[in-house]
Amino acid sequence: MTTEQSNPDSLLTVADVAKWLCVSSSLIYQLVEAGKIPVLRIGNGRGAIRFRSEDIQSYLDECRSQQIPVQPQRKTRPQLKHIQLE
After folding, report:
1. DSSP one-letter code for 37
2. Cα–Cα distances in Å, from 71 out to 68, 74, 78?
3. Environment class of residue 37 by beta-carbon count within 10 Å: exposed (0-12), middle (13-18) or buried (19+)?
4. Confidence at residue 1, expressed as pLDDT on a 0 to 100 scale
5. Which of 1, 16, 59, 74 has its CA 20 to 30 A from that of 81?
6. Using CA atoms, how far apart are residues 64 and 60, in angstroms rounded to an integer?
7. What's the pTM?
8. E strands of the chain, at which residues?
9. What span, in angstroms and rounded, lies between the C-alpha atoms of 76 and 50?
10. Share of residues in the chain with pLDDT > 70 (%)
11. Distances from the Cα of 19 to the Cαs of 6, 25, 65, in angstroms?
């Protein structure tokens, strides 16, 4: 049985990842909860959350490949109502 070992210097905190991705820490927690970013839990219970930089880079690559072109929304003009003057 082999275990994967990470260099402790390469482990990132939630704040590190949030800063790297230019998003809030709460969004990082949401991505973890949704299972979009793998985490390492250190300690008892829920433990401290740490990330491997390779996992974050993989997430970014996946986001890039799923990019959907955005079409600009056309502004609709309000329909004018005509009144008859007698």
Report:
1. S
2. 9, 9, 21
3. buried
4. 38
5. 74
6. 6
7. 0.63
8. 11-12, 40-42, 48-52
9. 48
10. 83
11. 21, 8, 22
SS3 of the chain: helix, strand, coil, percent, to 5: 40, 10, 50
Sequence length of the chain is 86
Q: How far is CA 35 from CA 8, 10, 41, 43, 59, in A?
A: 23, 21, 14, 20, 11
**Residue 82 pLDDT:** 76
Under DSSP, is residue 53 helix (H, G, I), strand (E, B) or coil?
A: helix
Torsion of CA 16, 28, 37, 12, to 10 degrees: 20
pLDDT of residue 46: 77
